[in-house]
Amino acid sequence: MDKSVLVVVMFSAMAWLTTPALAAPFSFSTGNPDGRLGALSQPAGGGSLETETADDFLLGDTTVIEGATIEGLITSGASLSDITNVEVEVYHVFPTDSVNVASGNVPTRKNSPSDVEIGSATRDQSRGTLSFAATLVNSNLSVPSSVVNQIKKFPNQATHGDGPAGGAEVQIVMTFTPPIILPANQYFFRPQVSVDNGQFLYLSAPKPIVARGTPFPNDLQAWIRNSELAPDWLRIGTDIIAGTTPPVFNMVFSLNGETFPQAGVPGKPNCHGRTVSALAHQFGGINAAAATLGFSSVQQLQDTFEVFCN
Length: 310
Fold this sequence. Notes:
Layout: H1 3-18, E1 24-29, E2 37-40, E3 51-59, E4 63-74, E5 83-92, E6 123-124, E7 130-143, E8 145-147, E9 165-182, E10 185-195, E11 200-205, E12 223-226, E13 234-235, H2 236-241, E14 250-251, E15 253-259, H3 271-283, H4 286-293, H5 298-309
Parallel strand pairs: 2-8
Antiparallel strand pairs: 1-15, 2-11, 3-10, 3-12, 4-9, 4-11, 4-15, 5-6, 5-10, 7-9, 11-14, 12-13
Helix pairs in contact: 3-4, 3-5
């Protein structure tokens, strides 16, 4: 090989090794509320059962999720100051993290959230791992359908829900501290909102996802359960609202963060070392990686990725 050509090749290789790869911003959205439904999603309290509403999303690469936004109704004249806590959980698609046994309590578990959440992905304001800001979108919004109390076991699950509901439409923007790290896969996102003097009804979004949203293949419908039905889930539209032509729903949420395709593979012996090396390369150093991805310190970043790898 000509010496001049060899020098060019060597310098090109050195430039690639010393120049960090550009971070790729990640965003996902189901779009705006469609005005069709509100579904309860809040912890137990005041004589009410814990109720969870979840909808799915897809990650094509390992992703660092820094925050999320949801929209819902707060009922019974509650105000923004009555929102006392927000918690999110993430679930695999059934049967992962599940006892793969048909209970007979629901028509199907195919394409539902799993039995239990991914522990490392839970974020909770009361535990200092989530902060949120709530804003008023519409002081008086009504929806023709809701699911609050009418969550029954098979074969009586087709209750048609709790009928119309109204309240103040709110948007809640969350920041995760530390961010959530997930490998490429399909997941369910489940937020819960605690409201003094009222309830939080999570608003539905169009299905299929339309403009402003982020359409993706095999978009699954929204599911719900309460503590009497758990660990099983019901499809909000197909199972509960039902009817001659059952409706299907998404729920309103968006996610933001950074993709990290060079991360190691969870469970592999070299996962942590490869991930730290890739972070330094992609972001121009481990300190820059921590700052860019929203970690409070390098140690927090190291600890979070260690949990991810294990």
